[in-house]
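re: ur question from earlier - yeah i can do the single chain one, its not a big deal. heres the input i used so u can compare w yours
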Amino acid sequence: MVSAPGPTSSVEETPESTGKVDSKFYGKELSQLQTELVKQQEHIRARGLRVVVLFEGRDAAGKGGAIQRITESLNPRHAHVVALPAPTEREKGQWYFQRYVAHLPGPGEMVLFDRSWYNRAGVERVMGFCTDEEYEEFLRSCPEFERMLVRSGITVVKYWFSVSDTEQEKRFQKRLKDPTKRWKLSPMDLEARNRWVDFSRAKDAMFAATDIPEAPWWVVEAEVKKRARLNVMAHLLTQVPYEDLTPPAPELPPRPPVEEDYLRPPKESQHIVPDIVP
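and the output i got, formated as tokens:
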């Protein structure tokens, strides 16, 4: 007989790679991957492709940090991050996928969802924000919705960031001590912390119903944030094959001479930001 997990054990499988990432390796690899992502974006833009990337997972699993590194060097005109708030009363009465459809990419665009329509299979299910009927309908309709997106020419990539309860607890404690990150701990996060197994069951059911060939789930082992970032960035590059369409660097002609009759207004007439740097 298998004993129930104790208070310090985890119901999650131990990730394969938990070693720290060398800082020099991380910096070099991050720079190279970001350069390739810029090339990929230019290919997407030039070819008029449409790409949707979903980031799901536990609270404090590192989704936001990964999205930040992916988009850091991208042109924000063609790469959009979508993190929707709780639905309004009007949105609650709409077709469930309706408010997400409004954010789908146009030609040449990539949209990254920091949490997505899978809220219904996770937090809404566990926290009781939807009925059993709404939940079951989501599991039935979600695969068809995603197949429709793929048939329309949209590439759908889905990532699940997996982190142990022990590591999540460490990150929660760090957020409590850091005033710049304390806003990340909402009452919902604290309640979810008490329902770890419920979320595990919900995730398992979600995978069973929505891990389809057209849009499979890709699990990112996120016990080590830097490792997870590099891994997901490298993987994303494989999901949309691309050519290097980087335009050649333009030649900068010599600057024209300053007109002799131009006089700059005195600094005293302007509001200058104080220099506080010693």
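The longest strand covers residues 154-162. not sure if urs matches, ping me
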